[in-house]
Design brief:
- By secondary structure, this protein is mainly α.
- The protein has one domain (about 5-85).
- It contains 3 helices and 2 strands.
- The protein has a two-stranded antiparallel sheet.
- Strand 1 (about 45) and strand 2 form a beta hairpin.
- Helix 1 (about 5-35) runs antiparallel to helix 3 (about 50-85).
- The radius of gyration is 18 Å and the shape is elongated.
Length: about 90
């Protein structure tokens, strides 16, 4: 369960950082964008009786964050298999 070359190690870390950056961008857009910046625009839409901006700030962001955890786990398993460092 080790990397074959130093180049594989660097490529693995680069892919890992790329994935984390993409997920952090989604996290930022949902938490800061939908919960703060675009709240007035989103409040014009109703979701289960609540204003959408309020819903994102209170509950929707949490659902997205949990989904991001599952996406990260899945993508890291794929990345681990690609570089031969998976645990299975």
């Amino acid at each position: 369960m080790a990397f074959k070359t130093e180049e594989d190690k660097k490529a693995y870390w680069r892919d890992n950082l790329s994935l984390m950056l993409k997920l952090l961008i989604v996290w930022f857009v949902v938490s800061f964008g939908c919960g703060i910046l675009f709240v007035d625009v989103l409040n014009e839409v109703r979701f289960f009786g609540f204003k959408l901006g309020f819903w994102f700030a209170q509950q929707g962001a949490i659902y997205v964050f949990v989904a991001l955890i599952f996406v990260y786990v899945r993508q890291m398993n794929i990345l681990d298999k690609r570089y031969g460092v998976d645990e299975e």
